[in-house]
Amino acid sequence: MSGPIGGVPASGQPGGLPGSLEPNSEAPVSDASAAPAVNADAEQVGEAAVVESVAAARGPLMLEAVGLGKDFKLGRGAVLHAVRNVSFGLYQGAVVALVGESGSGKSTVAKLLAGQERRTHGTITLEGKPVEIHGGGAFRRYKRQVQYVFQDPFGSLNPVHTVGYHLTRPVKLHQPEVKDARKAVMALLEQVRLTPADQFVGKYPHELSGGQRQRVSFARGLAARPTVLLADEPVSMLDVSIRLEMLNLLDDLRKRLSLALLYITHDIASARYFADEVLVMYGGQIVERGPAEDVTQRPAHPYTQLLIASAPDPDNLGSVLKSANVATGGGAGRAGTVKSSTGGPAPTGCPFSNRCPLAEDKCKQNNPALQLLSSNRAAACWRLDVAAPQLAGGTV
Known about the structure:
The protein has a single domain, classed as Rossmann fold (3-Layer(aba) Sandwich). The protein is 29% helix and 23% strand. The chain is built from 14 helices and 17 strands. The chain has helices at residues 106-114, 137-145, 153-156, 163-174, 181-191, 210-222, 240-257, 268-274, 292-297, 302-309, 326-330, 361-365, 384-387, 389-392; strands spanning 3-5, 29-31, 44-45, 51-53, 61-75, 78-91, 95-99, 121-126, 129-130, 146-149, 228-232, 260-265, 277-282, 285-291, 367-368, 371-374, 377-379. β13 and β14 form a beta hairpin. The model is unreliable at 4-43 and 317-341 (pLDDT under 50).
């Protein structure tokens, strides 16, 4: 059982090629006063593939993004295209991982879904109903169902307030029917395995370890009793020794509470371990997607291949790339490095074209849409016949 996620043709997305979440030098910036070499509106050729999500086998569709886009105006006619034509769904009880390097647009997607940024293009639906958030009561009702866990637990907790204060407020706000807020707070602490709970309720953030602070962040998100949890790099600020423990906790919460979970990470190895479906982002758009095991064991897009080749993994993740075109003779030196790298997404054509050793003129001029490799796998690359001939030949 799987659910189709519809692609949106590029012609419906005016404005050109998006880049990354954070406004930085790596993101592609267009100047409206200067005519680009390639028409930005026609950059992506063809329609994006309709890909079935393996996550749909877990449960019903909860939150869906279709053709999601975000532009930032930088002044003097320059526009930062942070997210472009991103479509996927989050399903009850399933984990979808959004993977990519810093500046790829992952966190912007999460903020759009959380209602913390206003989208420029596309639609968001929650349980089949279009989402239009203008603040006030509508935003509060939406946040009851969709919660965001921040990357830095110390920065997201007020240092002058106790753990109890941080959890009591959302309980009272989102669970007005609860008469004993303290009891509800203690239950939340036990849910995230901060026990005995009465030893933590009166502590301040600086008195907790990094892992304990992140558990408090999880508890705060769960205080609203959400159906969707957006976890933005939830373990990247933690010691390596406790990351697996935290992922196991998230997985347990996902199962027990039937959460639809978006897991944002730059670590594709953890996505393989944790997620049902992996979406690989580069330059503000999805360049590859499919079942987590398939994408990490048989990557198709050159960028995914380089991500995996550079990922340390005890199971020798990426060994499949020893004979891959991108990881050897073409343009890669050490695993995960590209000799032709210029430091950021290309402003026109395929966003990876100025780093890809397989790029040709067509890649630099036209941005490819996602192409189906199987019913639940797709990649956006003009050179799939060279980058992944065993997949492009229809043997997935």
